[in-house]
Each structure stands twice: as C-alpha cells, then as structure tokens.
Write a structure and sequence with these properties.
The chain has 336 residues and is of the alpha/beta class. It is built from twelve helices and 13 strands. It comes from Arthrobacter gyeryongensis.
Length: 336
C-alpha cells in the first residue's frame, strides 16, 4: 500500500511549490513578496518519514535526514543509503546478530554546513529519544563545530511521532518563523504525540538493552503479550495480555480512546509494521472505524534502526495532532 499523506503534508508541498514559483524569473511586482525561509530542518532516519515525501523537501536543502547505522552480522548499513529491509528480516528470523549505533558527529556537521552553504540562517535538528540512542549527543557535538546556529531537540520519542515533530518544524519554517519559533512549535507538537505498540516477542528488545532480562523472561515463560508505550523518552510496559489477538484488540481500544479524547478532527494516526504489512492494513482499517473524524492512518514499515530492536511482527500506532495552518494555530510571530 502506498503511504497516505495527511493534509499537513499536502499543505507543505503546495506551499513549497508557491515559494519556488515566487522566486522564478519573470515574477511580476504586483505579486506578494515571497516568504523568506530562514531555517533548515535536520533529523535522523528513526523519524520514519516516507521516502517519497522526504525527496520533496531534501531537494532544495530544507530538510536533511542523517542515516542511522545498522549492523547485520559483520556488515554495517546506513538507513536510506542501503536496501537492508529484506536482509534485516532474514537476520531477525534466523536469530542472527543485529546491532545499531548512532550517526557520527561528522555526519551531522556535513548536514549543518550544507544548510549554511544553501543560504539558511539556522538549523533545527530533531532526533530520536536520548533515552534510546546517543544521536542527539552526536548532533550537539557537531553543532559546536559549525558557525551556523543549531537548535538540537531531543524528541523523547521515535518513529512517526518524531516524524510529526519534523513535519511541524517544516510547517513553521515554511511560514517564515525564526529558529526559536520553529523549535517551540516542533516541541509543542512532539509533546502531543503518543506511541503504542505490540511485539510478539520481547527478545529483541532485551538484546538491545531496551528492557530488562527479567521482563523478557517473564513474557516468554508466561506467554504474555505486552502492550508497550514510549513515555518520557523510554519504552515502558502498558498492559499485559494473554494472547496476540487480544493484544492487538486492546491496542486498538487504547488508540481509539486516545484519539477520541482529543479535539475533534485534530488527530493524526500512523501505523508501523515490520514483515506484516497485511496485518497493519487491517489494523489501520479497524482504527478508521473506531476513530471518528480522524483521517486514514499512514501505513509504513518501521525503520530498520527501530525494527532491529522491535523484531518481526511488530505493530506500532502513533497518535499525534495536525500541524496544518488553519487546523491549528502557529505561535505568534516574535517581533524583529
């Protein structure tokens, strides 16, 4: 299934097209002056942004996605640079060694310098939770090496929850906001996201140090199927269910309750999977029936750097809120 684009993304694409047209030769003096976009946005591949969408914004430097390395056996691959999905799935199925790491500070330094050379005045850099990775620390080290001001944000989340913060930053940047305003808006949107997920086995999370050995053993021995969440930047158990079917059904209930507790028409959903697309599609369809007024969920594979820890068969649902101007209010502009 092709990734579905929520209204905010469509707004961004249309605005980007207008910005490009306004700076083309032959523009008449009667047209309104173009918005000056001063702030670039940098993130990492844990943000789970759809590849086709990324291309639109990477093309003119407004967005850079730094790949996070994944080691399968003795080979190191870069998310987005190498096609590692099938290789990772085979390695997980076979129980082979799979590890992840943070990008190097040098990779972020290159991204920041590229923004500077394209004429941007500042960068807002949004990254996977520091409770799960040292990526934000690498970004801060790089920020100290460059002359362009860089605002580094620990998203305290993962996947499209992080991606929604990135998208919100691009909305504010496209509106001509300063780096400080872009940061504030992104952080406000990030604070409104939640990640709920189910994994058939806790073993990969245990191997990666994301949960304790005791919790993994308990889940295996008692056939408990846990529902987990990302809370304050860390993975936490939410509920324990006795079967996979009941776990997925309970996941739907939790998500629907969250969506229906938010302002009507504001919620956005993303469904992640790895190796179980058909199951994710069915989950998204059922959520569409339960979450009244919510646009269809975006469905996408979990990035390799996250799938390496979650394992095969994961189902994750991200709940966030719209960042489309008109649907929500951007912060008031600060005076020059």
């Amino acid at each position: 299934m092709t990734d579905r684009e929520p209204p905010a993304w469509l707004w961004l694409k249309e605005r980007l097209a207008r910005l490009r047209q306004s700076t083309t030769p032959g523009r008449t003096g009667t047209e309104p002056a173009p918005v000056v976009v001063r702030t670039a946005v940098v993130t990492d591949s844990a943000a789970a942004l759809p590849a086709e969408w990324v291309k639109t914004f990477v093309a003119d430097g407004r967005l850079a996605v730094v790949p996070m390395p994944v080691m399968v056996g003795e080979e190191i691959y870069g998310e987005g640079e190498d096609d590692i999905t099938q290789m990772l799935a085979l390695a997980l199925a076979a129980g082979s060694s799979v590890k992840t790491s943070r990008p190097s500070p040098g990779q972020f330094e290159q991204a920041y310098l590229a923004a500077l050379h394209r004429g941007f005045e500042a960068v807002v850099s949004i990254h996977i939770s520091a409770g799960l990775s040292g990526t934000a620390d690498a970004a801060r080290l790089a920020a100290q090496r460059v002359s362009i001001p860089v605002e580094v944000i620990d998203s305290r989340t993962v996947g499209m929850a992080q991606g929604m913060g990135v998208q919100s930053a691009l909305v504010a940047a496209a509106d001509g906001r300063s780096a400080a305003e872009v940061r504030r808006f992104a952080e406000e949107r990030l604070s409104r996201t939640k990640v709920y997920f189910y994994v058939p086995s806790l073993e990969q999370l245990r191997r990666g140090g994301r949960i304790g050995t005791a919790a993994s053993w308990l889940g295996t021995m008692l056939s408990i199927k846990p529902i987990l969440a990302v809370d304050d930047g860390k993975i936490v158990p939410l509920e324990k269910v006795r079967s996979a079917a009941k776990a997925v059904a309970r996941l739907e209930e939790i998500v629907a309750a969250d969506v229906n507790s938010r302002p009507a028409g504001q919620s956005r959903l993303a469904v992640h999977h790895f190796g179980n697309l058909a199951e994710a599609e069915r989950l998204a369809a059922r959520l569409g029936e339960k979450c009244l007024g919510c646009p269809p969920a975006q469905i996408s594979a979990l990035p390799a750097v996250l799938a390496a820890h979650a394992g095969l068969g994961v189902l994750a649902v991200v709940v966030g809120e719209s960042s489309t101007p008109g649907a929500t209010t951007l912060p008031a502009r600060s005076r020059p």
